[in-house]
Amino acid sequence: MACEVLEGLKRFSLSEAEIVGVEIDEGDIVKSIWELGHNLFQFVFHEIEDKDKVFNNRVWSFDNQYLILREWVENMDVNEMDFSKMAIWIQIWNIPNHWISSEAGLKVGGLFTEVQDVFIPDSGIVKGRCIKLLALIDLAKPLLRGTHIRLGGVKWWVNFKYENLMGFCFYCGFIGHIERGCNQMNDDLKINVLKEGEFGEWLKAEESSFLHKGEN
Length: 216
Description:
Oligomer: single chain
CATH superfamily of the domain at 85-203: RRM (RNA recognition motif) domain
Helix content: 10-25%
Structural class: alpha+beta
Radius of gyration: 23 Å
Number of helices: 5
CATH class of the domain at 85-203: Alpha Beta
CATH architecture of the domain at 85-203: 2-Layer Sandwich
Keywords: Metal-binding, Zinc, Zinc-finger
Shape: extended
Distance between the termini: 47 Å
Domain CCHC-type: 169-184
Largest sheet: 5 strands, antiparallel
Protein name: CCHC-type domain-containing protein
Strand content: 15-25%
Pfam family, one: DUF4283
């Protein structure tokens, strides 16, 4: 749309008022939230510290749905913004105690799009019993339920649990809808081939309130 307008301007004979234009200051922009499209909003921060605080917390939700944040840059085209990835805290369970380390967590985290943080909890009921990852996941794929890890010829299955998991379909394993809005489930119902039990409540982390690294 912006390109079409610019092309049109090349054919116009602009008046003096159109050429001079109007200059506005950042202080003139007082609205904090702008709706840019369907489920697409722009948040305006007047202090850089406020914006940094929001982005540093990284995982946000509203009305039981994830809020995927992207930092605005000058001349950004909202139609080209990628919202297919989101950050979420993941707990890796069923690891033998002598295998638990941040380095092992990073290697397991390689299954996800990107690992942003990794540490071993030192408080709460999960102290020393799992590895925590803050990782980017691909919303175009079902959640990973776990994986095999190997050490010295020994093969071991580890489970993934997701903190504050919401808007999740326990039929197809995708984030973004629940069972009653699942197209795959509706299609399988039509041919009577329901595949139940592939995903379940066991993917939800039971405890997510213990401190993350760097919090106090």
